[in-house]
Amino acid sequence: MFDVIMPVVSQHNRIASLSIASLMRQIRPNHVYVITSKNNFDFFNVLKNDSPVITLDENELIPGINLQSLGDFIERAGQKRSRAGWYLQQFLKMSACRLPGISDHYLIWDADTVMLRPIQFLNEKNQALIKPSTEYHQPYFDTYFKLLGKTRSVDFSFISEHFLIKSRYMQELLDAIADHTTSQSHWVWKVMASIDPQHLSGAGFSEFETYGNFVNTVHPGAFALRPLKTIRYGARKFGPIPNRYDLYRLSLSCAYASFESWDTEGRRFRIWAEKFLSVLVYYTHPGRHLRG
User: Fold this and answer.
1) Which CATH number is 3-225 given?
2) Rounded CA gap, 161 and 231, in Å?
3) Is-contact 234 250, C-beta < 8 A?
4) Which one of 19, 28, 101, 221 is separated from 265 by 20 to 30 angstroms, measured CA to CA?
5) What are the distances in angstroms from CA 237 to CA 15, 142, 167, 286, 288?
């Protein structure tokens, strides 16, 4: 089995606890590494009694790289520093390949995503199973080319709510970034310097697109595509914190569901109606006694 990497901001604590519980119930990972602010440790330390949670300080995992230093970099480029956390969580997920004792593969899993049924992440050929998407954002590939001199190698997007990473391949990517230029700066600063300044306060880099396209080029056949029915906008229907009736109803058709906290404004009546329907489905569904 493998480890799970989950960056968490404090406003996602409640849904993250549901997410961790779902992972333990459905796939039982070796460890769940929660990467968060040290001020947020107490919330997750309680979970350690029931699950193999390990808390890591987001500001100490990569020496010299933290919310402050990334914000300063963005601000010096004349852009808004508010995007620093978005970049930091990407770098934390990438640097997890260097954690002592990390498993051969580690699963990056979004904190606001709840697993609803067991999911396979490797096939019999030891290929990582990819849920392809149709997203496309050119600045991601502009940065990728500046970093490594490589171009997009697939006709789909690797961006998803999860990604199974091979630790050795991620290490190869970090080494390739570090070695591509003569600059002696840290690989993180090489990434940041490769982003067009006008995109620093938006979306100028994707760890998933970079890793996926790099590995597909250097290790052809490392991935296999698979369909997976999921729901991204679960909060629109059920609010940011689903109850057990909502999750049961979703499990009848989906492998996992995401609940983005920003996605509920002006939807109070619909959320109430959907939750009422979830209760009805739960108590009338003929297979309830088999699924729990």
Assistant:
1) 3.90.550
2) 10
3) yes
4) 19
5) 15, 36, 36, 23, 21
- Say which residues have a Cβ less than 8 Å from residue 22's Cβ, sequence separation at least 6: 114, 115, 116, 247, 256
- Confirm whether pTM is higher than 0.90: yes
Name 65's Cβ contacts closer than 8 Å, sequence gap at least 6.
Answer: 88, 91, 186, 188
> Using CA of residue 233, residue 238, residue 243, residue 249, what is the dihedral sign?
negative
> With pLDDT > 90 as the criterion, what percentage of the chain qualifies?
88
Average of pLDDT values for 59-68? 95
Whole-angstrom Cα distance, residue 191 to residue 87? 10
Distance of CA 135 to the CA centre of its chain: 15
- Location of each CATH 3.90.550 domain in the chain: 3-225
Q: What is the pLDDT of residue 255?
A: 98
- Say yes or no to pLDDT of 290 above 60: no
What is the Cα–Cα distance from 277 to 249, expressed in whole angstroms?
Answer: 9
CA distance 80 to 74: 7
Q: State the average pLDDT over residues 122-137.
A: 96
How many CB atoms are closer than 10 A to CB 28? 11
pLDDT(45) > 80:
yes
- Mean predicted lDDT score pLDDT of the chain: 93
